[in-house]
Amino acid sequence: MIAQHPAREQILLENVLTALGNPMRLKVVRALAADGERACGTLLDGISKSTLTHHWRVLRDSGVIWQRPSGRENLLSLRREDLDARFPGLLDALLNAMEEDAS
Amino acid sequence: MIAQHPAREQILLENVLTALGNPMRLKVVRALAADGERACGTLLDGISKSTLTHHWRVLRDSGVIWQRPSGRENLLSLRREDLDARFPGLLDALLNAMEEDAS
After folding, report:
1. Which CATH code of 2.40.30.10, 3.40.50.2300, 1.10.10.10, 2.60.120.580 fits the domain covering B8-98?
2. pTM here?
3. Is the pLDDT of residue B103 over 80?
4. B80 exposed, middle or buried (CB, 10 Å; 0-12, 13-18, 19+)?
5. Which of A66, B28, B61, B99 is most buried as measured by Cβ atoms within 10 A of its Cβ?
6. Contacts B92 to A, Cβ<8 Å
């Protein structure tokens, strides 16, 4: 695992909300919730590598995703168990809200 | 009403999450959820007027609160009906998460 992941008890609501307050990062969370682990290069099209790196860092440092190296790229997955344990019902409500917003 | 309130259908999830990704603003939302309408001067202690004005604007422009003038100050209230209509279950999950985080 890459070093900067917070432990479960270090995940803070305001950091999670800030991380998700961005349409690109919301889209990533929705994709990871639907598909499980994904290679980081498969998630957002037409975005520069530096911008992608920024988005992964915000999601990782806030505790929303796990990021682990695999060969020449990173695999991303949602920290669903940790988020559900810290904030019961929040992730499901957010995913439902994203569906509402997208429909 | 002050002019910059978005209509219900203009409230966007990413804006709401950005607005709430701040401990001061989370605290305000929690107080308004518990107490109903509050005068803006009664909500956060020890914060400069310009910072308060900034927080009220972020909450208002994102659609989280109503802000209306009353005499020499503004009254603030949570747009619970609009938020519940746009994103069912989200506000309650957030309020529960705030309780978890505060306990």
Report:
1. 1.10.10.10
2. 0.88
3. no
4. middle
5. B28
6. 89, 93
